[in-house]
Specification:
Elements (H helix, E strand, L loop, with lengths): L1 H13 L52 H15 L15 E11 L5 H6 L21 E12 L4 E10 L5 E12 L12 E12 L4 E13 L2 E3 L3 E18 L2 E2 L6 H5 L1 E4 L16 E3 L13 E2 L4 E16 L2 E10 L10 H6 L7 E10 L1
Antiparallel strand pairs: 1-2, 1-15, 2-3, 3-4, 4-5, 5-6, 6-8, 7-8, 8-13, 9-12, 10-11, 13-14, 14-15
Length: 369
């Protein structure tokens, strides 16, 4: 048990991010723009009329957020941070407690543009400037968690989880609840009936002001323990899981290297007592002393991405082994269908068209009391 306690302490210590420094896989949503001509690689505003804008050339001269790219990034992050349902259909039993370390390794489409532009990357060691893109995003997202499961009898069980996503500042946390409809039959004809359980969970994140992400799940599992020589148990299981992924952005400055107030020569809002000499009415908009016609344009470069609500359908295949108090397990999670076909909204389906299926490998080590 000392080794387990040491491992738990090491996991929590690793989860503490370095203050003030962005990690290479942290979100960088300011780079997700429809027309890259509106900004330079350092994030400075390019004050011109970029071609191909939504409202037509010359009608808008500031950056517009790429909501489809944001949606794809949220979809893949949500898959990686979702509840793993890493357990058999049998609960811990009345008064039972499980404490486990869990490692989940999820494949992402790291060659896609939204991962390269949408994550921070390594800082330039010579200038200490942020990178203009992440040229080498990790192909696997690694999530390490500590889980506590507690049984209350009658097939009811709750669990709590806290973890961290490596190479990011993101911490995750959440809870699970499930009810075992059939469990515990050991003799006679019912002894051949597998355990059956239904449950759900929720995970949310903290650690980045750019992104709020919450994932809810519902799963159904069947399993059957196989005793081995009377002192250990091998338990395979299979399950289906439905995910609902909710993503929101914070206020994102698409041109963070340009100070909007300094750019326009900000003299306050256009209100009585501080009138805009170019207007004969008061509208509360910025009053700029810069004579350029586009002096106030950079104020429009602070945006909020469209809220995202997505669905994923997953297959769970796992096996657990328990020897006295020590337990270990492995589980494979994969998409049952493509991310696009899992959506109930036609716009989401269109935006995710061509997105690859994901998979995750989950490992577990812990103790049961």
């Amino acid at each position: 048990m000392r080794a387990l306690a040491a491992a738990l302490a090491a996991t929590l210590a690793l989860g503490v991010s370095r203050p003030g420094l962005a990690e290479p896989m942290d979100p960088a949503l300011e780079r997700l723009v429809l027309d890259p001509a509106c900004r330079d690689e350092l994030g400075r505003f390019a004050d011109s009329d970029p071609a191909g804008l939504e409202a037509g050339p010359g009608k808008r001269a500031w950056c517009a957020e790429d909501n489809a790219a944001f949606k794809k990034l949220v979809s893949q992050l949500g898959f990686a941070l979702a509840p793993t349902a890493m357990h058999s259909a049998r609960t811990t039993g009345f008064g039972g407690i499980d404490v486990t370390l869990e490692a989940a390794y999820t494949k992402i489409s790291n060659d896609e543009r939204y991962w390269k532009l949408g994550t921070q990357g390594e800082r330039d060691p010579s200038t200490d400037r942020p990178a203009s893109s992440n040229d080498n995003p990790s192909g696997i997202l690694s999530l390490y968690s500590v889980r506590l499961r507690k049984g209350f009898g009658f097939g009811f069980e709750v669990a709590g989880s806290v973890g961290f996503l490596t190479k990011t500042s993101i911490l995750s946390g959440g809870a699970d609840m499930r009810f075992s409809l059939l469990e515990g039959f050991r003799t006679g004809l019912p002894g051949y009936v597998p355990d059956l359980a239904a449950g759900g969970g929720v995970r949310t994140i903290t650690g980045t002001p750019e992104l709020q992400l919450t994932v809810a799940s519902f799963d159904i599992q069947i399993s059957k323990p196989i005793p081995i020589q009377g002192f250990s148990v091998l338990t395979p299981w299979i399950g289906l899981q439905q995910l609902w992924i909710f993503g929101n952005s914070g206020n994102i400055d698409l041109t963070p290297a340009t100070d909007a107030q300094a750019y326009c020569g900000y003299a306050g809002p256009n209100v009585p007592g501080n009138p805009d000499p170019n207007k004969n009415y008061f509208d509360g908009q910025p009053v700029c002393t810069n004579p350029s016609p586009g002096a106030a344009r950079d104020f429009n470069n602070t945006v909020v991405f469209d809220d995202v609500t997505l669905e994923r359908k997953r297959l769970l295949l796992g096996v657990g082994y328990r020897w006295e108090m020590i337990k270990a397990g492995v589980q494979l999670i994969t998409d049952l269908s493509s991310p696009a076909s899992a959506q109930s909204d036609s716009e989401d389906e269109q935006d995710l068209e061509g997105e690859a299926r994901q998979w995750a490998l989950v490992l577990e080590l812990g103790a049961a009391f």
